[in-house]
Amino acid sequence: MSEYLPFTRPTIDAQTIEDVGDVLRSGWITTGPKVEQFERGLADYLGGQRQVRTFLHATGALEEALVVCGIGPGDEVIVPAMTFAASANVVVRLGAKPVLVDVDLKSRSLLLDQAAAAVTPKTRAIMPVHLNGLAADLDGVYALAKQHRLRVVEDAAQAIGTLYKGRKLGSFGDLVVFSFHANKNLTTIEGGAVSLTSPEEARTLEVLRFHGITKYPDGTMDVTRAASKHNMTDVAACVGLAQLRRLDEFNHKRRQLAYRYFELLGDEKLGVVPARGDEGHSWHMFTLLPHYNKACPDRKTLRERMHKRGIGLGIHYQALNQFTLYKNMGYPEGRFPNAERIGRETVTLPLFPAMALSEVERVCEALGECLTTA
Ligand SMILES: Cc1ncc(COP(=O)(O)O)c(C=O)c1O
To answer: Would the CA dihedral through 328, 333, 338, 340 be positive or negative?
Structure first.
């Protein structure tokens, strides 16, 4: 039997492990020169015109990006109903209200007409999510934001290296947040970053990520707000630097794997395939809405059968209003038909840089068998 194929797996090479050893032996293991180097590396990767500040995770980065925008109690932020819970949770944590809108079934991106209809006098920001590595319709989002004077916090947790109309996400735009969690296209094990233009707002992020502390040249410091602690370590940044060197190679491989999936599943006999996007799609994940039927009535059955064949399928994600918190916030089931269908049916197929193209065939053959034979 072939080796178990998970839906994702990080690629950590021998050089990275050696570099981490050097940092661990150096005597400086928390935030220091490697973090600075990683932030400069990210800024260069994004074209050199942006401020980049790293965080312990994208969740903290998203929350503090909203704080920079002045979001607080009484404010509303528009968030797609199909995303990871963190996107909306951070809004709730600030005492503001996430106003959920449905997504397109194929791109899984927020529906702009619904976002436009959701704007009220309390709306302060909109959070497009570049789910699975596919850029949301940013022209539309920024036009809406301009019309209503909204801030835009892009949740690009899954989209480092993604291009929108030929430009890298994070090389433009208001506040753009990346995740470097273990399964992301670039990992620091856990980690995140904000890309933005304003040096003043970048300084505020520095204060917000480290106890509200401002340090002065004379060696003294002041604490101006009761901030939290989100600073990345040098060990993590060292992993990030090694990953950044290979990011374009990783994303190229992801595209090849996705295109092979399209060759084998593109006729949609086995299920609804995701929007293909253009060459800028970084293919963080390849998701399918399988055609369940008498022989294979539901996702649970499919995942169990695939697991028995040595193949892991992920679930990304349940819709937000399929969770108690958001259901109880006034978003009953039935409100977001596309997001909820995705939430009930979606599976994530294996896709990661070290995966062989032949393994895509193995996955598709197994899917065919599992979906058609009881
Ligand atoms: C869309 C989205 N937003 C936010 C996050 C949170 O990222 P982190 O785990 O780095 O906090 C994730 C992580 O999976 C995500 O997928």
So the answer is: positive
Ligand 1 atom at minimum distance from 180 CA: 10
Residue 2 binned pLDDT confidence (cut-offs 50, 70, 90): confident
- Which residue CA neighbors atom 7 of ligand 1 most closely? 58
Q: Structural domain boundaries of the chain?
A: 14-241, 247-372
Q: Which residue blocks in 119-161 are alpha helix, DSSP H?
A: 138-148
Place of tokens 């835009």: 152
pLDDT band at 1 (very low <50, low <70, confident <90, very high): low
Q: Which residues contact 227 (CB under 8 A, 6 or more apart)?
A: 207, 208, 209, 210, 211, 212, 213
* Nearest one of 65, 5, 23 to 240, comparing CA atoms: 23
Cβ–ligand 1 distance for 136 under 6 Å, the answer no
CATH class of the structural domain 14-241: alpha beta
* Ligand 1 atom closest to the CA of 83, numbered from 1: 1
Q: Are 278 and 137 in contact (CB under 8 A)?
A: no
Rg of the chain taking only CA atoms, in angstroms? 21
Please tell me the CATH code under which domain 247-372 is placed. Answer: 3.90.1150.10
Task: Point out the residues that are catalytic.
Answer: 184
Single-letter code of the amino acid located at 324: T
Q: What is the pLDDT of residues 166-217, one digit of tens each?
A: 999 999 999 999 999 999 999 999 999 999 999 999 999 999 999 999 999 9
Q: Is the peptide bond before 317 cis (omega within 30 degrees of 0)?
A: yes
